[in-house]
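Dig into what follows:

_____
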Amino acid sequence: MIRNKKLLKIGGITLLTVTLFAGVIFSNKASLVVAKKDEPITTSETDTSSKKQETINEDISKSEEVICEEPVTDIVYTTTSLNVRTEPNGSKRVGLLEPNSELTRVEDNDGWDAIEVAGVKYYVCDKYLTDTKPETIKKVTELKPIVETSAPAKTQYTSGQGGKYIGKFKLTAYCACSKCCGKWADANATTASGTHAVQGRTVACNSLPFGTRIVINGNVYVVEDRGSMANNVIDVFFNSHQEALNFGVQYADVYYAD
């Protein structure tokens, strides 16, 4: 068809038109070839890219594994005054935290959380911690030391001395554990009157007012607690459950100390 058109007078125009058209087609094809040449994609490069991605994924996975192994810390707050101990499970008290104290928890140890204060690890009962931030918080930079309240010097009375006779009471014993106090168990040994129970001073009695000083077997005690017992029973506080068991059940005449 093109050769026949070249014989026509207007064939030049036709030829030019065709030539230009062919040029466009050729030019487009050339540009396509150039584009492919500039950014060649081969099977080997695809494989290499895939291997690189797999390596990156492995690195990320390893990084995530390392992060998971790091100790988890979080911020918690005290809901009440709280004793700080050197070991979990009711060891020696070394400090006292005020309510709404902000703490860094570094470990959960079966009911006793490890906290860190000034770079030192201590333990507190997690029953008195919350992750809910109070309106007012107290930053803890050091522990408030505990002044152990020792039992008062016991004034010895002979039977019948020291004040008005109250009556004969059944004496039992208890400590601050859940076996003795049930749902009212308190790691801080806080009494119903709000004091801290002290062995040799604190007794629970339902028939005498808080603060009443009484004499039992020549020793002075203070009524600071209540209990689920009859009115003619006085429950004597001890630091440990074993000591309470050792005390057993006794009977004694009770007098007012004053």
